[in-house]
Backbone:
């Protein structure tokens, strides 16, 4: 049970550089409150993490909100505490902050470094594929005043971004980058169908396709989202609400099945219209899962690739495999990214080739609400939440100090 006697600094204030308080505030998920985010995420005061070999303690300035937190709170499709063997879980797989303490053997970072964090936690030093997702499969994620990461998870914070913008993009951007650059290997002149083209992954898939010389068709569910996708460089958009029977559902009647197939074909014709030729997308960017995967396999052009990293609507997928083998299509699985790939992607942000798309900023108290809205598909782009940074727009520790000292003097 939480140690109620511990005391922690208020949110928005930070100790002297390198001074580590005994306790910190954090949002803690516990098995007995698994459920929708508003129920699952509750603030507690817990002991500050102790850093071990190769680890780093980071003063969190802002956090990004993504679906990992939703899944962790739901306890479905897996109970994350099965991985950690603990009875509590601090989620959060995105943050910007300052290195506050460095464990023995932690290389490449020092106290005071301003960083963004990627979430590939290696199971052993140098492992290439044995990874855990920090803040999902580990219990010490970013939703606290401090977080504990491996030194290799620290990347340079783009200097001109605010703490909240810097916290907003990592997980989704690095995942989209891995899918399109390293896995599907989009080539100049190729066409990419991006489901959820204004969602967390989608806003980066659209931008990446453009800078790789391809054409992105963004699927969206509102005009506002269509505008956002076009502003990011989409070649065209399709509002999926125009095709109500497009969604694949379990247990469809033969009539519903027929209507579904007709909707998929009509959707394909809309793609031809946008592209100005009778061809399908060379790459389909998948993460929706059950509802769209059947259409994705059908719609991909012969020799096309369907690259998939998630299944928001269900992971038990159904599709007509004849379209796969007869047309020599490929399905490619992808899961987050390795450190090298994250570093290459982060450089694109530093070089201003990719921009974060933070559409909404939440307060610390609103962090459960931010997850709830994400769960209900009521957000677009990416969203963030302030933790140690006392106000929006601050970009480095000096600017934070000036504000907090000003507040102290004004009291
Ligand atoms: P998000 O910001 O909520 O965006 C998802 C988008 O999916 C929404 O904007 C929505 O767009 C679209 N969508 C939702 N229901 C749909 C449906 N029934 N049919 C068609 N489109 C639908 O989430 P995200 O951050 O992009 O993440 C998406 C999924 O990928 C999540 O399940 C997440 O866990 C997973 N993921 C996996 C990894 C990995 O490394 N394996 C990394 C990141 C994310 P419209 O309503 O506008 O169409």
Residues:
């Amino acid at each position: 049970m939480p140690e109620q006697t511990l005391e922690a600094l208020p949110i928005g204030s930070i100790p002297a550089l390198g001074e580590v308080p005994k306790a910190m505030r954090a949002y803690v998920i516990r098995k007995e409150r698994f459920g929708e985010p508003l129920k699952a995420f509750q603030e507690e005061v817990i002991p500050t993490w102790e850093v071990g070999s190769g680890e780093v303690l980071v003063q969190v300035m802002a956090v990004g909100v993504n679906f990992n937190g939703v899944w962790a709170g739901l306890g479905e499709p897996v109970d994350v505490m099965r991985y950690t063997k603990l009875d509590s879980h601090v989620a959060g797989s995105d943050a910007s902050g300052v290195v506050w303490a460095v464990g023995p053997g932690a290389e490449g970072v020092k106290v005071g470094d301003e960083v963004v964090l990627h979430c590939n936690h290696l199971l052993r030093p140098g492992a290439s594929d044995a990874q855990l997702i920090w803040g999902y499969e580990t219990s010490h994620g970013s939703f606290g005043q401090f977080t504990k990461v491996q030194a290799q998870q620290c990347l340079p914070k783009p200097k001109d971004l605010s703490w909240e913008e810097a916290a907003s993009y990592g997980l989704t951007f690095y995942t989209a980058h891995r899918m399109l650059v390293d896995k599907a290997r989009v080539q100049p002149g190729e066409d990419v169908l991006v489901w959820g083209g204004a969602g967390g992954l989608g806003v980066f898939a659209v931008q990446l396709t453009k800078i790789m010389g391809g054409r992105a068709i963004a699927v969206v569910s509102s005009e506002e989202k269509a505008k956002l996708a076009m502003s990011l460089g989409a070649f065209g958009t399709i509002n999926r609400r125009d095709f109500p029977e497009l969604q694949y559902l379990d247990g469809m009647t033969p009539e519903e099945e027929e209507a579904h197939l007709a909707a998929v074909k009509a959707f394909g014709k809309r793609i031809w219209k946008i592209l100005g030729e009778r061809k399908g997308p060379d790459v389909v960017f998948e993460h929706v899962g059950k509802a769209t995967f059947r259409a994705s396999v059908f719609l991909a052009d012969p020799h096309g690739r369907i690259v998939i990293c998630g299944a928001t609507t269900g992971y038990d997928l159904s599709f007509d495999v004849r379209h796969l083998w007869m047309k020599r299509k490929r399905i490619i699985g992808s899961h987050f990214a390795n450190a090298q790939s994250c570093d290459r992607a982060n450089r694109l942000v530093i070089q201003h080739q990719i921009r974060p798309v933070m559409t909404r900023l939440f307060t610390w108290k609103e962090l459960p609400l931010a997850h709830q809205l994400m769960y209900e598909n009521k957000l677009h782009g990416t969203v963030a939440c302030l933790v140690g940074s006392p106000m929006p727009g601050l970009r480095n520790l000096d600017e934070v100090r000036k504000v907090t000292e000003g507040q102290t003097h004004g009291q």
